[in-house]
Amino acid sequence: MARSALVVIDMISRYEHPVAELLLPSVREVLPHIRTAIKRARQAQVPVIYVNDNFGQWRSHHGEILDSALAGPHRELVEPLQPDEDSPFVVEARHPIFYETPLAYLLSTLDVGRLVLCGQVTEQCVLYSALDAHIRHLTVTVVRDAVAHIYPDLAQAALHMMKRNTSADIRLAADLDFSAGAVSRHTDRRRPEAHLSKR
Q1: What is the Cα–Cα distance from 173 to 171, expressed in whole angstroms?
Q2: What are the extents of the domains in the chain?
Q3: 38 near 116, Cβ under 8 Å?
Q4: Using one digit for the tens of pLDDT, what is the confidence trace for 65-123?
Q5: Which of 1, 15, 168, 187 is the most buried (most CB within 10 A)?
Q6: What is the distance, to the nearest Å, from the Cα of residue 97 to the centroid of all Cα atoms in its chain?
Q7: Each residue's pLDDT tens digit, 134-179
Q8: How is domain 3-195 classified at the CATH fold level?
Q9: Which secondary structure element, helix H or strand E, spans residue 147, and what is its range?
Q10: 0.90 cut: is pTM over it?
Q11: What angle do the packed helices 127-135 and 152-165 form, to 10 degrees?
Q12: DSSP strand E in 53-187: where?
């Protein structure tokens, strides 16, 4: 049976882009839940794959991207999530995570058939990545309390779209089960938008 992989999207960041101030409150809110998802994946010996923007520095490798983010104004949001030495790090050209990256090949070599997505931004890269994974016949789970948004209303719509258009399973980090073929310990019947802050 194909295995799962946790994909951490764009969390190694300096947060200096034009909408960073709108994004930061949500990042702070989801940070503990991303850590929970990473911890559960590592305990289950499931691959934790980081896919990350290169900040427009096309010659950067993952070490330089991490060092740049740690030297930025929000080190406290980066340090708890930095990859360990066993975590693959894929540098993306643009969202989604598959576009012009070796991710598809990496997943095939790891025999991964299910992606568990966390990171940022719900209504942008997470949404596009879920759609792209779906057309590649991958099963998708979105950790709804571990994806950060800029605009709550668009994030709500994105969660609904992922659930309805890609059959994505929308789950809490605390409910994740990374055993083969599993999705969660129990069915979560709450609406996908229940975690979104009413800002």
Answers
A1: 7
A2: 3-195
A3: no
A4: 899 999 999 999 999 999 999 999 999 877 789 998 999 999 999 999 999 999 999 99
A5: 168
A6: 10
A7: 999 999 999 999 999 999 999 999 999 999 999 999 999 999 988 7
A8: Rossmann fold (3.40.50)
A9: strand 139-148
A10: no
A11: 10
A12: 89-91, 112-120, 139-148, 169-171
